[in-house]
């Protein structure tokens, strides 16, 4: 019998021949909206254009949500000429008309297909039709392609097999001459985290998310306590936030500027989680550098949902130019479990471009807990056992949720009667506008809206101690006391 590790080693031997994708796109994780989580196949021209208006009205485009992505079910049939046409009932003016209108409003237009004979909703897929479908996308002014993994005719099972299947579309898009970001949605199969960056700007690393913080589900297909099992079957659907975090933890460092681990679309606002769970979900997706694709129906947004997804101090973690994801530096399973036997705590930590550190204490246990994050663990990547020089310094601690927009303020935006009223509200609030001041510039200038509120100091060789509510996360930016962070402005 050949040992499985030898099979894996052999399967990966070809990878040194591949150069990382360098198309100049997605230098920070893409942000935007995708219809699938809330509306599935209920798609139309009106939906895309009305949602784009909502993104503007709610100030979300100016927070960085500049992609409008149409998911599955837009297709009619593939014609005798080999080209797929859009459903004329749903899109009477065609895709180019939608694209032109979105571009005029400052958006990028995203579309969907699958590297299979059918899409997941059983419309025409792109397998063996990559060139003609890429020609369509380019002629329609598409900027971003979500490329799924359904009905792939058995062309998977080794990294090279999956790589070649997805590379066909990557090559076809490049051949059109149009800059189109490619987001692979292959559910983490065949070790995509080792080769996705060679051909794409993002790659899904797990089965589909569903609107649950920690509940296990058989359709996710893996043991909740061993989500990194490479031989996991049926990874396609119903994976909780906690499962996805555990799945990505061992290879979270594979994200690089221009290529990102995709933890799947956001569930914030869908209704299956608590406010604290949604806050934790959103913050961890940002800190781990997943694309931030809103999945809720923005036409029925609640104040609490808006005040989560428009927090500039959290989004600044996502858009930080250092481009490295926070990593998990501590995990504790010896905590109270819920009715499914699930319960654990994490500490996540990561370096930011200006020398600051993001620190997240996640409580996924079944009760409120006192948690402690020692500097020796926070900076373990710089040296284990407290040997990191950062552990010998004191750090000011800034709470990144402290300045969250209030429900009353969010409601005033949602209920504003016209554009002028909304503009006056945003002006009065002084809310951050990334269209006017990109996050890179705001961070460089030390814009206080991106840095939260100071809540304490951690002295050298000590720890940050705090009570963390059940199913919630404390999210902090650590800044060196009395020292300008690598030449950048202090608050």
From TrEMBL:
What are its E.C. numbers? 3.2.1.22
Q: Where is the signal peptide?
A: 1-20
Q: Which GO terms describe its biological process?
A: melibiose catabolic process
**Reaction equations catalysed:** Hydrolysis of terminal, non-reducing alpha-D-galactose residues in alpha-D-galactosides, including galactose oligosaccharides, galactomannans and galactolipids
InterPro entries registered for this protein in UniProt: Aldolase_TIM (IPR013785), GH (IPR017853), Glyco_hydro_27 (IPR002241), Glyco_hydro_b (IPR013780), Glyco_hydro_melibiase (IPR006215), Melibiase_C (IPR041233)
This protein's major location comes to secreted
Which cellular compartments is it found in?
Answer: Secreted
Keyword field contains Transferase: no
- All residue ranges annotated as the Alpha galactosidase C-terminal domain in the record: 343-406
Q: Which family does it belong to?
A: Belongs to the glycosyl hydrolase 27 family.
User: What is the protein name stated in its UniProt record?
Assistant: Alpha-galactosidase
């Amino acid at each position: 019998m050949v040992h499985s590790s030898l099979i894996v080693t052999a399967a990966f031997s070809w990878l040194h021949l591949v150069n990382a994708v360098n198309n100049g796109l997605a230098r920070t994780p893409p942000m935007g909206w995708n219809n699938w989580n809330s509306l599935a196949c209920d798609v139309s021209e009106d939906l895309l254009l009305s949602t784009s208006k909502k993104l503007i009205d709610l100030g979300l485009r100016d927070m960085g949500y500049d992609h409008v992505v149409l998911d599955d079910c837009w297709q009619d049939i593939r014609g005798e000429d080999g080209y797929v046409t859009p459903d004329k009932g749903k899109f009477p003016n065609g895709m180019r008309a939608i694209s032109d209108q979105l571009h005029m409003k400052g958006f990028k237009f995203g579309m969907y297909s699958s590297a299979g004979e059918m899409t997941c909703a059983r419309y025409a897929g792109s397998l063996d039709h990559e060139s003609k479908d890429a020609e369509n996308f380019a002629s329609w002014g598409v900027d971003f392609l979500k490329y799924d993994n359904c009905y792939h005719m058995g062309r998977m099972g080794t990294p090279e097999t999956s790589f070649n299947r997805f590379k066909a579309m990557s090559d076809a898009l490049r051949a059109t001459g149009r800059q189109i970001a490619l987001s692979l949605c292959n559910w983490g199969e065949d070790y995509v985290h080792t080769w996705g960056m060679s051909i794409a700007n993002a790659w899904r690393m797990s089965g589909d998310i569903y609107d649950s913080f920690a509940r296990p589900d058989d359709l996710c297909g893996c043991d909740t306590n061993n989500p990194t099992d490479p031989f996991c079957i049926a990874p396609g659907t119903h994976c909780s936030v906690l499962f996805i975090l555990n799945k990505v933890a061992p290879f979270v460092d594979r994200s690089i500027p221009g290529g990102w681990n995709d933890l799947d679309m956001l569930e914030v606002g869908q209704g299956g989680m608590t406010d604290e769970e949604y806050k934790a979900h959103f913050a961890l997706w940002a800190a781990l550098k997943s694309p931030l694709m809103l999945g809720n129906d923005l036409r029925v947004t609640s104040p609490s949902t808006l005040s989560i997804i428009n927090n500039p101090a959290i989004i600044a973690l996502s858009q930080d130019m250092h481009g490295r994801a926070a990593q998990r530096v501590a995990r504790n399973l010896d905590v109270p479990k819920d009715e499914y036997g699930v319960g654990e705590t994490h500490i996540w930590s990561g370096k930011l471009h200006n020398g600051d550190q993001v620190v997240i204490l996640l409580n996924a246990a079944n009760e409120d807990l006192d948690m402690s994050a020692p500097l020796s663990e926070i900076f373990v990547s710089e040296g284990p056992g407290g040997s990191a020089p950062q552990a010998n310094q004191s750090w000011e601690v800034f709470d990144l949720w402290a300045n969250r927009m209030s429900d009353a303020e969010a409601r005033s935006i949602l209920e504003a009667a016209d554009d002028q009223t909304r503009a006056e509200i945003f002006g009065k609030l002084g809310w951050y506008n990334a269209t006017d001041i990109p996050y890179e510039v705001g961070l460089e200038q030390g814009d206080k809206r991106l840095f939260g509120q100071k809540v304490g100091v951690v002295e050298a060789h000590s720890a940050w101690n705090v009570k963390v509510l059940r199913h919630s996360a404390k999210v902090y930016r650590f800044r060196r006391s009395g020292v300008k962070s690598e030449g950048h402005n202090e608050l």
